[in-house]
Every structure is written in C-alpha cells, then in structure tokens.
DNA sequence: CTAGGGTTAG
C-alpha cells in the first residue's frame, strides 16, 4: 500500500523542489531502502522534463551501494540529455562496480546513436553477446540503430541478418539507416522484401520507404507506396502524410505534394506546413511558399525555426532581397533566434543579389563562429559579381579554416581568369596541387523503367553509352542551329576552345538528360525528363537544357544540390537566378 | 525482487 502511494507521490513531482522534498522525506522515512522507489525517483528526476539531471546525480552520489537500476536511471538521463557522450563514461564506471543488464545496454546505445560515437557501439555489441542478450529483439534493434546512425551500415546489415529474433521495428531501423546513408536503393529492396517475407509493415516502415524515394527521386516506387498508404488508411497519420509531401516535392512534383497538403485528412503539424513551404521554395515558387508561410503565421500553430528557414529559402531562390531581410530581421521578435542555417540563407540571398558588403558584414556580426559554408557562399557570390577583393577575403578565411574544397579554388581561379590575372590563376592552381584538395565527383542519375541509372562525367560504364554519346552529338548539332554557344569560360584549364567544349559536353547531367530523352522518345509530351545531380548544375548544362526543352518539346526537371530547375519552352523556372 | 528499453517526417 505504502509503495503504491509513494509511487503516486513521485509521479506528481513536477518541479525540482518537489523532487528535493520527496527525496528528503524518503530518506527520513526510510523509504530510500526500497531500491524500487529510489530508482523511480532517480529516473523521474533524470529524464522527465520537470526534472534536473544534476540533482539526480547528487542523489545518486549519496546512495551507499547503488544497484543496476540506479545506474540505469542516470545513464538513461544522460542518453537523452544534451551531452549523450557522458552516458558512456557512466557506463564505463558502472562496468567495474555493478552488474550491467539489457536496459543498461539499451540506454547506452541510445547515447551512442545520438552522440555519434562509433567506437563505443562495437563494445556494447560485445557486451550483449557476452551476456547472451542477442535474442532480445528490442535491444538488438537499438544496437542496429546505433550502427546505422554512426554510418556503419555493413555492421547494421550483418547484425540484421544474424538476429535470431526480428520484428517490424528491426526492419524499419535498417530501412531507415539505408535510406539516410546513401543506400536508398537497398532500402527500397528491403522494403519490398518485407512483403515477400510476410512481415506486416507499419507507419514507420512507410515513412522510411518514402524517405528512400525522396533521396532517389524514385517517383514510380513513391507513387506505389502512396497508394499503399491510402489503401491502408495510413494517410491519416500526420508523419506519413508529411513524408508523402516531401517525397512528391523531392521527386519534382510539387503540385502533387500540394494536393496531399490541401486534402489533408488529419490535423496538420508544424512540420506539414514547413515541408510544403520548403517544397515550393526549392521549386522556385516563392509566392506560393510565402502565401503558405503567411497562413501559418495566422494559424494557432506557431512557426518554428524551420518555418523561417523555409521562408528565407523561398526568398533566396527568387532573389527577394528586401522581403527576405525583413523576415530575417523580424524572426527574433517572434521568438525564434537565427541559427547557422538562417545565416547561410541570408548571406546567400544578399551575396547573390550583389550586396557583398552587407553579406560580409552579417558574417562578421554573428555571435557564433561562422560555418565555412558562409564564406563559401560569399566566395560564390563574389565570383558571380566579379568582385576580386571580396573573393580574396573569403578564400583567405577558408584557407585559414583548413577547408580544401576544389570548388572554392576553381571559383577563385575563375575570378582571376576573368580579369586576365594569369599569374594569380597559376598560383591558385599550384595551391590546388600542393594542398590535398578534396574533389567531389559530379554524379547524376535518372529513373527509367523503374531502375536508377547513374552517370559520372565522361562516363562510359552504361551499357548503352555509344547511343548516349551519339544522342549528345545530335543534340549539339540541333542546339547550335538554335543559337547555342558553348560556355567555355566555365572551363578552368588553358586548353583549346574545342577541347574546352569537349570537356563540357559529357558532363554527368548531360549524359543523364540525353539518356532520358532517348527513353521518352515516342512517349507523350507531358512526360518530363527528370534528373538528379549531387552538386550544383553547371552553367553550360543550364543553357543546353533550355535549348533542348524548346527543340525537343520536352520538359526537363533537374534537382541539384540545393534546388529544382524546370526547363520548359526554352526557359528555366529559376529565371537564370541561381 | 514488482517497471522501465527499439524503428518515423520538415
């Protein structure tokens, strides 16, 4: 009786002072001898939003011989705190003093997943094997998730294969891990395998599978999954429907995304609104994005940091400088402090519009240490506006910060080249050779007949590469007649004009578009060619695709690293502002 | 030695 009563007392603690009172009462009344009540109080103190982890630690320190559950409460507290790595230090001291159980491992693994400490996960794995806990599906799923979140998908997959007991959450954890770990294709295969093996899928499965489609731009599979979602009434689940909106957006069909948004059957969450605003924003439809943002402002749901980021992104891609800066300047008054991403957006917005000095001043005025991305953004803007002085400031900062990105060197070199400062061009190129410059290879892909085809620059790995290269020659011939001139100024090397043109014409995105054109020949004009590129689209490709869209009467949709370009009748949805 | 642990969206 007394225990049940005391339990209730613990549950009613909603402030730190309550907890302190209950604690001293327990100590004087001798309740603290009950290890159950003790760990309950510790846990409440350590993890509930009303609690205070440092108080829990104080209480813990006064326990003469803490038991497993006392340790577990503290580790669980740290695992969900802002310093999850401390959970692992506690775990290590616990090992030498007390028996570890499945819960201990579970909480510590949760911390591993959050703290991204890849070295600890295998240690926990060994501990689980040593204690014979591998038949615990919950624990193994937590372990699998920790491997996934640390990017070790090989171990995650191996564990999945070896698990003696698996349930839907185990499948979900691996699908989600693959989807967010650049192996979205395998995530979809695993999703399909669930059906074959008769594993009942749930809302979490669908969210993860839709996420895989978003990454890949796999619209065929995405539509199928959306169909499944509707058939199983899972569209009433907000998270699933949000993932559906995102899937349509990232596959290039923002209008379909809006249909889902418009016909929402359950209550929208702030994420629903944000996803839709961001969707229109990355498609360059700033006015629709901002209209929804305004509706959100007058809604009972409060806009959060992502809402502002989405609105700023809309302004950024449309060049709405004044509007964007006013949103940026007002957000703090509405209770949302700008973070690094907001700064990134506004610096890009100002820089692209030629307000380089203002962009620079914003970076310098920041109270937090600016991320290198901000300087890269300023450098990019300096190149567009041919401002050597600002480019040098930005690139000097990047070198100071130890950022060796090949794109940054290329930009600086281009700026010098545009001014005919060949000595400086040579110096930058020397730097590129002496420093180990990281080069991210350009990669484009396209879905055709349900499979994804990948292309690198000048790639000849595709089985139909000869036809693709012939198609490119045909395109070049036709667009020249339409007035196309190769943008050879974009090529860095001092080689002949013809060689420069050759360096441009087999860019990965051109290979993918050429292949796409081949695949839609004879198919209704309304079927667009959709391509995804890992980096930003190249300027020459942008010109070429405008011509193609006109001559071949075919819409081309390119998703680059930051936004969509929709080429139609000779122009692009970005209005050449990017 | 009573309960407590896992997978999901912008």
TrEMBL record:
<feature type="repeat" description="PPR">
    <location>
        <begin position="167"/>
        <end position="201"/>
    </location>
</feature>
<dbReference type="InterPro" id="IPR046960">
    <property type="entry name" value="PPR_At4g14850-like_plant"/>
</dbReference>
<dbReference type="Pfam" id="PF14432">
    <property type="entry name" value="DYW_deaminase"/>
</dbReference>
<protein>
    <recommendedName>
        <fullName>DYW domain-containing protein</fullName>
    </recommendedName>
</protein>
<comment type="similarity">
    <text>Belongs to the PPR family. PCMP-H subfamily.</text>
</comment>
<feature type="domain" description="DYW">
    <location>
        <begin position="483"/>
        <end position="578"/>
    </location>
</feature>
<feature type="repeat" description="PPR">
    <location>
        <begin position="304"/>
        <end position="338"/>
    </location>
</feature>
<keyword id="KW-0677">Repeat</keyword>
<dbReference type="Pfam" id="PF13041">
    <property type="entry name" value="PPR_2"/>
</dbReference>
<dbReference type="InterPro" id="IPR032867">
    <property type="entry name" value="DYW_dom"/>
</dbReference>
<dbReference type="InterPro" id="IPR002885">
    <property type="entry name" value="PPR_rpt"/>
</dbReference>
<dbReference type="InterPro" id="IPR011990">
    <property type="entry name" value="TPR-like_helical_dom_sf"/>
</dbReference>
<dbReference type="Pfam" id="PF01535">
    <property type="entry name" value="PPR"/>
</dbReference>
<dbReference type="InterPro" id="IPR046848">
    <property type="entry name" value="E_motif"/>
</dbReference>
<feature type="repeat" description="PPR">
    <location>
        <begin position="136"/>
        <end position="166"/>
    </location>
</feature>
<dbReference type="GO" id="GO:0016070">
    <property type="term" value="P:RNA metabolic process"/>
</dbReference>
<feature type="repeat" description="PPR">
    <location>
        <begin position="269"/>
        <end position="303"/>
    </location>
</feature>
<dbReference type="Pfam" id="PF20431">
    <property type="entry name" value="E_motif"/>
</dbReference>
């Amino acid at each position: 009786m007394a225990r049940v009563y005391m339990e209730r007392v613990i549950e009613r603690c909603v402030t730190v002072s309550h907890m302190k009172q209950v604690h001293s009462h327990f100590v004087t009344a001798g309740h603290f001898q009950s290890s159950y009540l003790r760990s309950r109080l510790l846990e409440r103190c350590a993890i509930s939003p009303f609690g205070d982890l440092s108080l829990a630690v104080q209480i813990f320190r006064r326990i003469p011989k803490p038991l497993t559950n006392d340790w577990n409460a503290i580790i669980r507290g740290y695992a969900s705190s802002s310093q999850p790595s401390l959970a692992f230090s506690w775990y290590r001291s616990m090992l030498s003093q007390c028996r570890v159980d499945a819960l201990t491992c579970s909480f510590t693994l949760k911390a591993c997943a959050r703290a991204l400490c890849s070295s600890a996960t295998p240690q926990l794995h060994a501990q689980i094997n040593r204690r014979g806990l591998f038949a615990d599906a919950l624990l193994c799923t937590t372990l699998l998730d920790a491997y996934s979140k640390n990017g070790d998908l090989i171990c995650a997959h191996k564990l999945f294969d070896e698990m003696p007991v698996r349930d839907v959450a185990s499948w979900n954890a691996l699908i989600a891990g693959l989807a967010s770990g650049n192996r979205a294709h395998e995530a979809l295969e695993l999703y399909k395998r669930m059906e074959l093996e008769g594993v009942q899928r749930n809302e979490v499965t669908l969210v993860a599978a839709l996420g895989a489609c978003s990454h890949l731009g796999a619209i065929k599979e995405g539509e199928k999954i959306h169909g499944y979602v509707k058939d199983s009434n899972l569209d009433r689940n907000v998270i699933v429907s949000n993932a559906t909106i995102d899937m349509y957006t990232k596959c290039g069909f923002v209008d379909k995304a809006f249909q889902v948004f418009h016909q929402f059957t359950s209550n929208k969450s702030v994420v629903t609104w944000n996803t839709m605003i961001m969707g229109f924003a990355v498609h360059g439809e700033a006015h629709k994005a901002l209209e929804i943002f305004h509706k959100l402002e007058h809604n009972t749901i409060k806009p959060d940091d992502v809402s502002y980021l989405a609105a700023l992104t809309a302004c950024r891609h449309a060049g709405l400088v004044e509007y964007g800066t006013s949103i940026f300047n007002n957000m703090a008054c509405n209770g949302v402090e700008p973070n690094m991403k907001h700064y990134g957006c506004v610096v890009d917005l100002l820089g692209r519009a030629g307000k380089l000095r203002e962009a620079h001043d914003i970076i310098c005025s920041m109270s937090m240490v600016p991320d290198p991305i901000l300087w890269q953004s300023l450098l990019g803007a300096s190149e567009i506006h041919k401002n050597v002085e600002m480019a040098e400031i930005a690139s000097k900062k990047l070198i100071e910060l130890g950022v060796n990105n090949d794109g940054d060197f290329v930009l600086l070199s281009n700026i010098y080249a545009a001014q005919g400062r060949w000595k400086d061009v040579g110096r930058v190129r020397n730097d590129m050779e002496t420093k180990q410059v990281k080069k991210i290879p350009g990669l484009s892909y396209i879905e055709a007949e349900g499979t994804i085809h990948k292309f690198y620059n000048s790639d000849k790995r595709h089985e139909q590469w000869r036809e693709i290269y012939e198609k490119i020659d045909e395109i070049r011939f036709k667009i020249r007649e339409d007035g196309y001139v190769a943008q050879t100024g974009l090529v860095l090397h001092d080689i002949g004009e013809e060689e420069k043109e050759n360096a441009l014409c087999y860019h990965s995105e051109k290979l993918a578009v050429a292949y796409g054109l081949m695949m839609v020949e004879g198919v209704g004009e309304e079927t667009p060619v959709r391509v995804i590129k890992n980096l930003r689209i190249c300027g020459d490709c942008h010109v070429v695709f405008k011509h193609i869209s006109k001559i071949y009467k075919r819409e081309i949709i390119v998703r680059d690293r930051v936004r969509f370009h929709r080429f139609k009748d000779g122009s692009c949805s970005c209005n050449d502002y990017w």
